[in-house]
Design a protein that fits this description.
The chain has about 70 residues and is mainly α. It has 5 helices and no strands. Helices cover about 70% and strands about 0% of the residues.
């Protein structure tokens, strides 16, 4: 039940971003989130926007990562 409960909790962008210890790690975390999420609602888009902000990713890099994820 513990794992199921953890998976059901809303994602916390700040908590996830705290794991980034370098700019490369930040980009990898964001790209992994992009690949794991189908952006099909406002909540998912808001999470990704929050995550990019918490990771301090440049808008140009976010655009590039979005392009990579779609490829």
């Amino acid at each position: 039940h513990l794992v199921k409960n953890e998976l059901a909790k809303p994602l916390d962008a700040r908590e996830i971003a705290a794991g980034a210890d370098s700019p490369a790690a930040a980009a990898e975390i964001y790209l992994t989130s992009l690949l794991a999420i189908n952006i099909d609602n406002d909540q998912e888009r808001a999470y990704l926007d929050d995550l990019a902000r918490e990771l301090r990713l440049a808008p140009e890099l976010v655009s590039e990562l979005l392009h990579q994820a779609k490829a």
